[in-house]
Write a structure and sequence with these properties.
This protein is mainly alpha-helical. It has five helices and no strands.
Length: about 70
């Protein structure tokens, strides 16, 4: 289950950085039951929200990616 969740999170994070899809649409595209579920899951595993990740500047992305690499 953790493996599947991790894949869904990584796909969501990819879409956040490479598209302008609304977070709600990304949550359903990636298999989350709601945007609230996506927000809570990413926050639980990485400590930031999808919007934080999408809006991060390059220096913050390095931090986010370092956290992501540790999981």
């Amino acid at each position: 289950n953790h493996y599947v969740t991790n894949i869904k999170i990584h796909y969501a994070m990819h879409l956040l950085r490479t598209t302008d899809m609304p977070v709600k649409e990304i949550s359903y595209t990636c298999g989350f039951s709601s945007v609230t579920n996506l927000n809570a899951t990413i926050k639980k595993f990485y400590g930031f929200t999808p919007s934080d990740y999408r809006n991060a500047d390059e220096s913050m992305l390095e931090v986010f990616n370092a956290i992501n690499d540790m999981t």
